[in-house]
Specification:
Elements (H helix, E strand, L loop, with lengths): L5 H13 L4 H9 L5 H12 L2 H6 L7 H13 L28 H10 E6 L4 E3 L7 E7 L2 E6 L5 E7 L4 E2 L1 H6 L6 E4 L3 E7 H10 L1 H27 L3 H12 L10 E2 L6 H8 L3 H13 L3 E4 L2 E4 L2 H8 L1
Antiparallel strand pairs: 1-8, 2-7, 3-6, 3-8, 4-5, 4-7, 9-11, 10-11
Helix pairs in contact: 1-2, 1-3, 2-3, 8-9, 10-11, 10-13, 11-12
């Protein structure tokens, strides 16, 4: 049996919990028996946290012996993709300063009530450029690639979203189509909030509105810097140098060697700077000859940050 689209399963869970489509429950349950490992893990995760199951079978009402057996079994089970699965925003330990969802407890309750928690495998499409906005995704863990495509099919990676960011916010607020495509780069834990619920939160909770404004401001500033770097860089080598420097870890002494925190393929680097894979391969080779960088297997090490900065200027 072929892999089932994770977003389809998430939509089935939403319909199930709302009681709008009883057949949606069977779609999720049958997917839990799918031979495909990714589909089976996604379905089991949805079933495990299903609000409908929690409502019908509350833990406090279950026989003590049964609860004990289930608790032991759940403790021994591996979570999907070995992620630290977050079942509720109220008890989340991943949230920290700078996260979009860093709300006060009073505001976090309605946000949690409107959220649909999900785990997605690498390569899952959250939304596509030009699609009507259904809502926003809050990225709890993992990374998501945001890209745009020209009419000729050329892909430009705009950024790599990381934990704590909210995706699709500008489109959801304005009601216009998504400006970019969002695809998971690694297994991710996400919270989905539908557009109608999001608008209600924005209107009823000023704290959510402030966080949304701050997030949109950071998006604008980031886009401005990226455009500045991409357009004003004198050469492709300068653009590549800027890209490598932007991926370097923060808080490291400039004289020390720096290992890039996220490894990219040559194709992904090319898509980030608007070039070709062949050009990026040639430029990296030149940087190695100049002893500005070196490769340790799949890890790229910046040997001379000052030299890269001079090249990027």
């Amino acid at each position: 049996m072929a892999e089932i689209d994770p977003l389809y399963l998430l939509a089935c869970q939403v319909e199930w919990e709302r009681g709008a489509d009883p057949s949606a429950a069977w779609e999720v349950i049958s997917a839990a028996r799918n031979p495909n490992q990714d589909t089976r893990a996604q379905a089991l995760c949805l079933l495990e946290r299903s609000q409908e199951l929690k409502r019908r079978f509350p833990q406090n009402g279950a026989p003590a012996e049964r609860v004990g057996r289930n608790s032991t079994k759940e403790a021994d089970m591996r979570t999907p993709y070995d992620l630290d699965v977050i079942e509720s925003c109220m008890g989340c330990k991943a949230s920290r300063d700078g996260f979009f969802c860093r709300f006060s407890p009073a505001v976090l309750r309605p946000v949690d009530a409107a959220s649909y928690h999900s785990v997605m495998p690498s390569g899952a499409l959250l939304f596509v450029e030009g699609q009507a906005p259904r809502g926003v995704y809050i990225l709890c863990s993992g990374t998501v690639k945001l890209s745009t495509t020209s009419k000729e099919g050329k892909v430009l990676i705009l950024k790599q979203a990381e934990a704590g960011e909210v995706l699709g916010l500008s489109a959801a607020v304005s009601g216009t189509s998504y400006e970019m495509t969002a695809e998971t780069s690694s297994p991710c834990q996400l919270n989905f909030i539908g557009r109608q619920d999001l608008m209600s939160l924005l209107q009823g909770e000023s704290e959510v509105g402030v966080h949304a404004a701050q997030s949109l401001s950071r998006e604008f500033q980031g886009a401005y810097r990226d455009i500045h770097d991409l357009v004003l860089a004198r050469s492709s080598s300068g653009k590549l140098a800027r890209l490598l420097l932007s991926c370097a870890p923060r808080g490291v002494v400039e004289s020390a060697e720096q290992r890039l925190r996220s490894a990219m393929t040559h194709e992904e680097m090319a898509q980030r700077i608007g070039s070709s894979r062949e050009t990026v391969t040639r430029l990296l080779s030149n940087l190695k000859k100049k002893r500005l960088i070196r490769l340790e297997g799949a890890t790229l090490v910046i040997r001379d940050r000052t030299g890269l900065e001079a090249l990027a200027a």
